[in-house]
């Protein structure tokens, strides 16, 4: 067992998203080549109160024995983002961003900006910073979306784009691996909303359309949703890079793109709603009702992981885990699983899917659905706080102020 800090006041923070407050549990940032923990001293308060953290120290963790490899102080930050490509970790607060080499721990740059940062992405040598800025008259009800592309030394070296705003609800979010950025503005939180799709390489607008929620789902296809704020996703369309509608998703669902084993490229179909769609053209490939979970708030994606050529889905109703063929959409196997409702997160090595639930951590073989091993949760662990995931090519489980890496 390794100890990451000699400071008894330090706790493991819930990286990468909750670094300015501590709610009683934590987890590390993992990449394909490193594990980075975020430590800080929380202010006064009880467990679960959201105690303020003034300064954060990043720590590189040796995957062999859990010992610290390096410590880098980054000051007060709100969150970090793992690199889309390369090794540069970006961490930011309201108007400051710091860059750290996730392997060596070297602080390789920082920048102050004149807008409120919403997101920072790094991809190789590229840095994309997005956020919003108040107009010159200081009105808080109209904010201008801002997008910059640059380097760790100069975050707007390539371009800065300030987009016209329709109202107080505005954002810019970059997806550098897909080469696209979405910029949204609205008169009110309930719409009407206009979304621009922007070429991330140049910062130039490709097209604009009316949508309450949108995101690039491949380098060629953008998903546009309307009716979201009514509690259900009313419609979902797939648009190409010219803004033309190429397909409609028959049964839209939420959380369709977040699953273990996602590659972030166009080598697999898009798993949206109850079907699969071609990542290049948006054409519907097949549909299978096992792909969604019907809940009171509307359909949600049942997809938990994609392992090799098998999509792994769960059903709380039938209490099963099911394997679906990526190419045909046909059911390959089905395994009874009492705790199917709680299956979440996890990791894959290309042959097995390892996941957590209320009882422990389990490995299921993607080829035939056989559960090959199970481990109980660590003593005293609250299953609501446990996170199972990959860590530098290995398996990790995190809870409270500690995490374990398995060989």
UniProtKB/TrEMBL annotation:
Signal peptide: none annotated. InterPro entries: PQQ_rpt_dom, Quinoprotein_ADH-like_sf, WD40/YVTN_repeat-like_dom_sf. Transmembrane segments: none annotated. It holds the Pfam family PQQ_2. Residues 276-401 form the Pyrrolo-quinoline quinone repeat domain. PANTHER family: CELL SURFACE PROTEIN, OUTER MEMBRANE PROTEIN ASSEMBLY FACTOR BAMB. This is Pyrrolo-quinoline quinone repeat domain-containing protein.
């Amino acid at each position: 067992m390794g100890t990451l800090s000699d400071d008894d006041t330090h706790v493991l923070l819930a990286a990468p998203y909750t670094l300015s407050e501590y709610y009683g549990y934590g987890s590390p940032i993992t990449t394909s080549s490193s594990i980075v923990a975020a430590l800080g001293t929380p202010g006064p308060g009880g467990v679960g109160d959201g105690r303020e953290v003034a300064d954060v120290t990043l720590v590189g963790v040796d995957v062999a024995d859990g010992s610290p490899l390096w410590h880098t102080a980054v000051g007060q930050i709100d969150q970090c983002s793992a690199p889309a490509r390369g090794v540069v970790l970006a961490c930011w607060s309201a108007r400051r961003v710091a860059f750290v080499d996730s392997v060596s721990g070297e602080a390789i740059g920082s920048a102050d900006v004149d807008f409120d940062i919403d997101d920072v992405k790094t991809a190789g040598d590229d840095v994309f910073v997005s956020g919003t800025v108040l107009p010159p008259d200081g009105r808080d009800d109209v904010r201008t979306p801002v997008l910059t592309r640059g380097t760790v030394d100069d975050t707007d070296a390539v371009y800065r784009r300030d987009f016209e705003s329709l109202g107080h609800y505005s954002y810019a979010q970059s997806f550098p691996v897909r080469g696209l950025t979405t910029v949204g503005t609205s008169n009110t939180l309930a719409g009407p909303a206009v979304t621009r799709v922007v070429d991330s390489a140049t910062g130039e607008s490709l097209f604009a359309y009316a949508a309450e929620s949108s995101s690039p789902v491949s380098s060629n296809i953008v998903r546009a949703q309307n009716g979201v704020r009514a509690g259900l996703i009313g419609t979902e369309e797939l648009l190409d890079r010219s803004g033309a509608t190429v397909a409609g998703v028959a049964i839209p669902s939420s959380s369709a793109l977040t699953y273990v084993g996602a590659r972030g490229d166009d080598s697999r179909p898009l798993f949206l709603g109850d079907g699969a769609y071609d990542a290049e053209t948006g054409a519907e490939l097949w549909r299978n009702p096992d792909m969604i979970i019907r809940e009171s708030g509307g359909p949600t994606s049942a997809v938990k992981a994609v392992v090799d050529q098998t999509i792994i889905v769960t059903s709380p109703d039938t209490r099963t885990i099911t394997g679906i063929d990526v190419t045909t959409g046909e059911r390959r196997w089905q395994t009874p699983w009492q705790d199917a409702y709680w299956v979440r997160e996890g990791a894959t090595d290309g042959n097995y899917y390892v996941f957590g639930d209320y009882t422990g951590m389990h490995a299921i073989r993607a080829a035939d659905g056989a559960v090959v091993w199970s481990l109980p949760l660590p003593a005293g662990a609250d299953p609501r706080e446990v996170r199972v995931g990959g860590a530098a090519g290995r398996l990790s489980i995190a809870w409270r102020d500690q995490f374990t890496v398995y060989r």
